[in-house]
Design brief:
Two copies of one chain form a homodimer.
Chain A (H helix, E strand, L loop, with lengths): L5 H19 L5 H8 L3 H7 L3 H16 L14 H29 L4 H27 L9 H11 L2 H10 L4 H16 L5
Helix pairs in contact in A: 1-2, 1-4, 1-5, 2-3, 4-5, 4-6, 5-6, 5-8, 5-9, 6-7
Chain A binds a DNA duplex (30 and 30 nucleotides) through helix 3.
Chain lengths: 197, 197
DNA sequence: TCCTAACTTTACACGGTGTCAATTGACACG
DNA sequence: CGTGTCAATTGACACCGTGTAAAGTTAGGA
């Protein structure tokens, strides 16, 4: 969609990203973005159908910039399930801060904009697959704890690693990113790995 | 604030609660509430200064109705830290569904309405004290795991029990309320109790 | 020179919140 | 009986943010 003029389109996306990343999340207005680019608000609509559309495009732009979510695909260096779990959490912990602002904005649109909701859900579903893969790797190794079914364990891991939880722990509780990564790893091991070492 | 006419004021609060509880959260409009009560939208402003005010009053109304958050005060029947942790989680699991709708609405107002944000934060701070009390009870018993400081453990428990997590597990993952309560208890034990039995 | 595409300016519709002024209806008090 | 008061109504309006529309400008290319 929205043909041509890569330059302006990209300027818009990067302005949008920059504003979103500065943490304001949902309170970033179309006019803010336009002002930042140096064009009129109306001109935004020459490139994107509506605000949700722009927000979604911004997420794709992030992927493009940072290599995207293929970073979450399990590395083949992970031999054991435990290594795979650790690697996944570590990758996710690196990825989260990059999508935080956009995530918040998309999440806030959830109730009113089905397209935005779908876009975010898609991302979260992809992420869930990573969780599931790690849990299944544990199960394959027979190191998955007996308390939960693989599906339940996936539910838990997926929830544990949610954007909201990251936000709460880093913003409200003041955890550093390293704290987050380390503790999530240790929590996940404790929750899911049978032989607690 | 907002003197007099208990009757109408209460009608408003109960209509507000009812709409909020039906899960729409933030998309409940002033006009919806007014329509439900059978008065004009403007009349709402005779009783409440603004939407945030009404939402906050609704949370107090819930407390009044259901006995409120004193249910979260640790029962004195809990001898051990572990019992206390279990009891707290169980009480919280019963309380959560009652404040879900309002919580969502208040959470959505967070960015724009500082008063609403403060009201919700206050509640969450109260709840955090319950988390802390349970963790400190474990520490007193020397059954708190060594991996985390009491404060970190409180951060984790507090985050684990967040409204958003409850929402995700019940709404998105389809857990029953009993599933939620049981699994949260078992997760908390696994995360925080030193002697894993 | 003319066409096209990007962008501008100005204006407006819509939905939601919040304010205001004038009015109605009920009830109480002297 | 008249008067005051209080809740609620009606109708209008301001503000904000999103989105649409129409007409005009500017620059580049065939």
């Amino acid at each position: 969609m929205s043909s041509g003029s890569k330059s302006t389109r990209e300027k818009i996306l990067s302005a949008s990203l920059e504003l979103l990343e500065s943490g304001q999340g949902n309170s970033v207005r179309m006019s803010d973005i336009a002002a930042k680019v140096g064009i009129t608000r109306q001109a935004l609509y020459l490139h994107f159908r509506n605000r949700g559309d722009l927000l979604i495009a911004t997420t794709h732009y992030v992927d493009e910039l940072h290599g995207g979510d293929e970073r979450l695909i399990p590395s083949r260096t992970a031999k054991t399930g435990i290594e795979r779990l650790d690697a996944f959490i570590s990758a996710w912990a690196g990825f989260l801060p990059e999508i935080y602002g956009i995530g918040k904005a998309l999440l806030a649109l959830r109730d009113t904009d089905p397209e935005a909701a779908a876009a975010w859900d898609k991302r979260m579903q992809d992420m869930r697959e990573g969780c599931e893969a790690a849990i299944l790797a544990l199960a394959r190794d027979k190191t998955l704890i007996a308390d939960y079914s693989p599906e339940q364990a996936t539910d838990i891991l997926w929830t544990l690693l949610s954007l909201r939880n990251w936000e709460q722990l880093t913003v409200e509780c003041g955890w550093s990113r390293a704290d987050y990564a380390d503790h999530m790893q240790s929590m996940a091991r404790r929750l899911f790995v049978a032989e607690v070492h």
